[in-house]
Amino acid sequence: MSAQRHRGLSEQAAETAIDQACRMLRLRTLHDLRHTATFMMLDDPNMPPVYVQKILGHKYLSTLDIYNRPTRDDVIRAGLAHHARQEKRREENPVPVDEPSYNPDSLSILFGRDAS
Q1: Dihedral (C-alpha) 16, 17, 20, 24: value to the nearest 10 degrees?
Q2: SUPFAM superfamilies recorded for this chain (predicted)?
Q3: Most exposed residue of 30, 35, 55, 111, measured as fewest CB within 10 angstroms of its CB?
Q4: What does the domain layout of the chain look like in residue ranges?
Q5: SS3 90
């Protein structure tokens, strides 16, 4: 058996393949794919922006601000969803409230009555 040597793509062939893929995906450049992926990750409520920052290799979280352009409706919807989750959490895990108990002697002192 002879070993078959794999020949890589030439620079021109790789460029042509990338150009064709971009046209098929309706992208201006391959870098547009990175932008699309970034928008999609930031739109995922379970993907913390700091993770997106690390994936993209950005030094500063603020670099993602150019991608983070929520509409007014997006912000309202997210705010309402947040409050609904908080309300559900409070219903599922109510905080016990103890009935207040007072020391009669303390009340007497507080209101200036004789504690005896």
Answers
A1: -170
A2: DNA breaking-rejoining enzymes
A3: 111
A4: 12-92
A5: helix
pLDDT digits (tens, 9 = 90+) for 9-58: 788 888 888 888 888 888 888 788 888 889 899 989 899 999 999 999 99
Under 8 Å between Cβ of 38 and 67: yes
| Residue in 73, 54, 72 with CA at minimum distance from that of residue 63 | 54
Within 8 A by CB and 6+ apart from 17, the residues are: 9
pTM: 0.49
Locate tokens 């905080």: which residue?
Answer: 95
Six-digit token string for 49: 């922006």
Q: 2 and 28 in contact (C-beta within 8 Å)?
A: no
Quote the tokens at residue 12: 């021109």
CB distance 72 to 60 below 8 Å: no
DSSP, res 73: H
What is the token pair recorded at 91? Answer: 């219903």
Return the residue matching tokens 């309300």. 87
Looking at the chain, how many residues does it have? 116
